Amino acid sequence: MEVHRLAVAGRQVPIAQDVGRELGWVLLGWSRFAQVEAIATATLTLGPDASAFYQRGWAYSSTGRPQLALANYEQALALHRQAEDRTSEAATLNNIGSVYAGLGARRQALVFYEQALPIAREVGDRAGEATTLNNIGHVYDGLGDPRQALAFYEQALTIRREVGDQAGAATTLNNIGHVYSGLGDPQQGLAFYEQALTIAQEVGDRAGEAATLTNIGHVYDGLGDRRQALAFYEQALTIAQEVGDRAGEATTLNNIGQVYDGLGDRRQALAFYEQALTIAQEVGDRAGEATTLNNIGGVYAGLGDPRQALVFYEQVLPIMREVGNRAGEATTLNNIGHVYAGLGDPRQALVFYERSLPIAREVGNRAGEATTLSNIGHVYAGLGDPRQALVFYERSLPIAREVGNRAGEATTLSNIGQVCAGLGDHRQALAFYQQALPIAREVGDRAGEAATLNNIGHVYAGLGDHRQALVFYEQVLPIAREVGDRAGEATTLNNIGRVYAGLGDPRQALVFYEQALPIMREVGDRAGEAGTRYNVAMVLRAVGDLAAAVAELEQVVELDRQVEHADLADDTAMLEQIRRELSG
């Protein structure tokens, strides 16, 4: 680097450009993006240089500054065309496409990839052709067209094997695994990831090995096997730290945080997210910073602190807009909508969901569109307009089927079942839940299976068939424990307590409520704790212990105030009523 500095200082242009280019490639391989940016910027003080623009664009893209990346790539592209360097022109077109893909502008990405492909073929650059086919597959995957994605990935894989590009083959195998996972076939996804992992380990591609371990972790996380997910993420983290990949380290810390979040251990999740945030800010990764702020917002929402969640989500939104990430903007608008729905302000929630929906459509994110339609359905269900809720759920369902999102299909079938149950049509609700259950089992979604079994239990409880409700709730409990879902375990214990209360066995009901309460406190679920304490109060009232019932309800009202619960007024009224019973 000293040679480069001296060449720049002495205005020795050819030496500065040559040394800067070679240094840049080495530093990019080590993910030292700040140094790449500094060297390229110094080189460019001597005049235009295609390699310096290209490498600086890469550094900007890798640190969440897509607009700056585009500006530099476009400068590089013009210089490559001027020099008639067709190979470099194709590489730059590919990178511009990747920036647009990262921004969620997939159709625009396709425009650039489709310019790169014939050039790679024209100059006989088989490796470049494979890269472009892989990138086009990635766009179709993001557009919700997995079959078309597979067609391009399979062409890319054939070429990469043909030219002996083992690392590239591993990347494409990873991508094919991702498609199968998205199609609701996690076992097939795992088969491809495991092929990719073997190759990455054989060729010593530590970064590729870490990426594949992360993907395998994602599969296990999606299957509800969070302990196994954690094992893979922790292996990926060790490698990222070992090779000095700070951005990869932050991503993996985020993934570990998400596992703890899913396990209901939100305090531990927060610890990992805060480590990730520090690194993202340190390396200037604005996109990673936004993702982490979103995750922290989600933790506070789960902890029953919606106001603090909003503080974080509102920090995310301007970053997404700054970096031009329309897909991320849509996700954040959705998250803000969730907060307002949880705060009992469904009209405001609707405002944010309705802002999210056209963006999801604009960027071609069919899966995101389906999610937002479902969220709008939830709002209408909460507003007491089940017919309108059904309209949105029924729009969401065919999209989930179209993009092959079996897990999403199962969730939407469950949502429709919940509307039917709310309308008092328990038999129809059961029909939808029974469609959802085998799909959840088919895709290995243990968490989804547990949720659906819970819903079926609710139907039987609503039909007054407490014994049958118990059969389903008791199937849920071991799954929640197996996957380490402490929050789900607490909810199920609460449900079993309610069944025993309905069966006229208040003592047994209390046994289950008292098992649920410490878990709810442990995971920080204050809203759930309020609900369970309310149930305890009703049992105590039923057995004539009014003083103890009042003590429980006083805690319920305080918890309601803390989380701004919609039931605060009703619970306060019940407290006053039992106080009157006690004094009268």
From TrEMBL:
UniProt key word Glycosyltransferase: no
Protein name: Tetratricopeptide (TPR) repeat protein
Alphabetical keyword list: TPR repeat
Pfam families: TPR_10 (PF13374), TPR_12 (PF13424), TPR_8 (PF13181)
TPR repeat ranges per the UniProt record: 50-83, 130-163, 170-203, 210-243, 250-283, 330-363, 370-403, 410-443, 450-483, 490-523
InterPro entries for the chain: TPR-like_helical_dom_sf, TPR_rpt
Protein's UniProt keywords contain tRNA-binding: no
